[in-house]
Sequence to fold (303 residues):
Amino acid sequence: MTSHRRELRQLAQIQRWLQAVITHPDGVEAALSSSEARTEIEVSPERIEDVVEPSKRRTSIERLEVYANAYYARLLECLRDEFPALLHAAGEEVFDGLVFGYLQSYPSQSYTLSELSRQFAQYLEETRPRDADDESGTPSWPDFMIDLVRLERCYSEIFDGPGAERLTLLRGEDLRDLAPDAWVGARLICVPCLRLLSLRYPVHEYATAVREKQDPDLPEPESTWLAVSRINYVVRRWTLTRVQFELLEALIAGETVGSAIERAAKLAVESGESVNRLAENLRDWFAEWSAAGFFRALQVDVT
Fold:
């Protein structure tokens, strides 16, 4: 091995060690004893000066802590940008505390920051306080925060993920021209950016108000169903009824149009809505959803 290659190998080893030290959720001193760091360089806190020289003002560990603090400050900044509505609702101190706890339980494991918050809602659910409201089934403050995180995370995933901008979308006339028998057995292929959310609070209204620089009051609990998608690189949302939600959920899952309508009809009847009224609504719904770009293809089974 040449001297140049040996130096590059040593540099890569130091870089891996440094990453393990400054990204450790329990701090620099704990990181030095971790298996990740010791696999690269076996050094104790007492001998850290053999690897990192102290400066005139800081010890070796203090110098490493500067980078560690900057790393977590950057992650905090990213999550503040991604969850402005949660930041507004919780306040800076509570928000920062939630993020710090989250990053300790679910440290970043990906090269891209878009994956950083993937388990944030799960963490809030796991650590939420339990009280009498939980037993009664009445949504409470933790549910509101979890719903906010689910909504804002959904916005991020749709914005960063695959969209429909380069796809040929299904037109309303494509649906109208299909024979009734073929229509019932057909499957609607939805665009990849279409998502559905079932929420306990109307957090979409709260989040919109925050993004418009308003100071909204916390809403009362209200069952809320949303469709969220992306049109021309802009994330948009649509408020749904529960029947609409069930219908779209079945279509996204790959059920036939006939099966999805049967599922929606059953729910409509249970809710006191007439089947005739549902039939009238279906025409309007499919026309609206086609115009919104929900569907990219119609698959008709040939028997």
The chain is about 55% helix and 10% strand. The CA atoms of residues 247 and 260 lie 5 Å apart.
